[in-house]
């Protein structure tokens, strides 16, 4: 993968220049009876202050494992994770505790991440109590304020999760996450379980909160339209590795990696005229087993343009001009692959 | 093909619908309340046609299809008529339904793993339908199973036919489900969120399979989905459901270009479109879906609708006219579609 950069030691540089999150060569290998699964295989990412990075991939790409490692719900087996310049890769739970106010995770399914026996008020107040951020007497007022910020009414504090709709529950998750005023929010498919109209309101809310509070965000999703709506930059994962990274507009306008191109062309556009006129790249075959990923480029078994070299040599994730990175032997100095001009391969077609 | 005279009709040809649902209502009674999941729903599907039934969670789209299949539990009260090729299915005896299900009328579900038997090979499971409905021998059934696996685009079908569901990926399992469903060349295939559990690159393949089946076998497809991208891709006609009722029904191009019901308009406005410039604010639909415990003489969307007046709260709007672009609204929107669609087409140039 890309060259290892030294993670600066804490307080060495001014606070603003230190990225909120810096991940270097992250590895998470699982040992199973069938062999070693390389769920995350050398992933490097950086999220600046107030920046939203979209991490996109299909099932089994390892995107959620990256998120779980970053908040240390999962132990990385290699690489480094720095939160605001502090290396947290191997910090003990106790040492990690004060840093828990700097990052928070929002899960996909709010009904399983909220304790059904607690009122929503207690759920939102819990981080405030644990971190002693607000005196006991001020808890209720702070909770009601937070509920207001996510578009709920004060009386919602006395309800239980089952009395709320899915969208309202996800708002509770967000209120809980924001209660500690984190510098980094990790959102793992926060809108995927929601209906279209509810999803719109939660995405609007996330965008508003992000703008007002200025937290950095790792937005993990399979939903390309949602990530385009929210993210400043997008990284695309395939079988444990990042295959392409680019500023959002550029990725949609001119995807370089054949997998990104297929992914963008496969997502149907909600407009019959446009959708039926599009050329769709249908990938053949399945995602290979992560137990025995193919040699060379992981994508070569399904790639419509693979050549011999792709079957043997692992492509490096190369830096390109314009803050882009791509890992493909066939991408030459930032020009898209021939025969797949961006006009007909990207759904935006811009 | 002998059992399916409909297949000779050209897709989309006018004439007798192959599936005709009239005033279908489904309610569930518990000790304390009655939930009206589906309220006087009617629709027709022509041979070879793809009708998409669209709506959000709880709108009744799945219950409708379970009612059509006769698969609802005894706690459900079903009224109305379901006619398949002239035969009445509503109220038919279970024995009669068993002869129809899997033969003339088949269904596939969202999660193939829960619909497949984990301890039988896929060949056995496909063959079961053929042996039951067509009286094939074990050997014949296996040969036909290999053919069917090839038809739904499974590579190396001779090998796959002997495998168990857990050996297949999610996309392959859904293809097996489709193979089982079309084994007896059904007149109508009901697909309930067939691609929702799948990745987009896999979804694209499944949508192509369904499309090719319609072209090759003339199967009519009732596609139940919440995904408006899938609708735009696959449907001929669209039925929009809200709170158990049909609120709009139209040919797919018309529905997207000029939605007339405020709910449809809200739904299309809220959907994310790739390529939308900048971070525009997504339009939201205020309020919540009403509880289904009452069958009010009113428009069920009135509480959330910006156009609503007294009449909307007092009288139930009928779905009119009889055919073509139908809408159940006292104040249907007449201007062409809001900007997103037009803006998007512009962006596509």
Notes on the protein architecture:
- The complex is a heterodimer of chains A (350) and B (349).
- With 350 residues, chain A is an alpha/beta fold.
- Chain A has two domains: 10-231, P-loop containing nucleotide triphosphate hydrolases (Rossmann fold, 3-Layer(aba) Sandwich), CATH 3.40.50.300; 258-326, no CATH class.
- Chain A contains 13 helices and twelve strands.
- In chain A, the strands form two sheets. Chain A has an eight-stranded mixed beta sheet, with helices on both faces. In chain A, strands 2-1-4-5 form a four-stranded antiparallel beta sheet.
- Chain A is globular.
- Helix content of chain B is 34%, strand content 20%.
- In chain B, the strands form two sheets. Chain B has a seven-stranded mixed beta sheet with strand order 6-7-8-3-9-10-11, sandwiched between helices.
- The N and C termini of chain B lie far apart (44 Å).
- The chains are: A alpha/beta (350), B alpha/beta (349).
- Chains A and B meet through helix 7, helix 8, helix 10 and helix 11 of A and helix 7, helix 8, helix 9, helix 10 and helix 11 of B.
